[in-house]
Amino acid sequence: MTSSGVTLSKATLEDAAAIYAMQLEAFMPLLEKYQDYETNPANETMERLLERMNQEFVDYYIIRNAGNAVGSIRVKKTGEHEYWLGQICVLPQCQGQGIAQQAFALIEEIYADAKTWGLATVLQEERNCYLYEKLGYKRTNETREINDKMTLCFYEKSEG
Question: Could you tell me the domains of the chain?
């Protein structure tokens, strides 16, 4: 799957170390900022990542730009034609280049049967919220306060 230089490749267990390293690099600034040791992927163990990768209803993809691995995305099938996006990351030095937008477009092509997409992000990270809204995601009324610095907010996108 290609979209002007951005490609997605389905990850295998051999890719786990690369995904783990990218998650650490991409999410560490947020971990330091919000001290969210419960949900931040930078605090996830390699064992937990491997557990998730082994789930039959979960797919991981490596996001590449011009052939270089620049991020990853996890797709979890939550129901009939329903998917949840998690651990979406683009390396800090590659952010702001439209890579995530292109990756979302590719994911939506791959899972063309999807009627509903869901995801959660940090309410205080306005750039992330803006990106998801720009991609057609609508905020739900659900929020989850993680600590006094950070709240998760939830988004949903329905097709058709």
Answer: 2-158 (3.40.630.30)
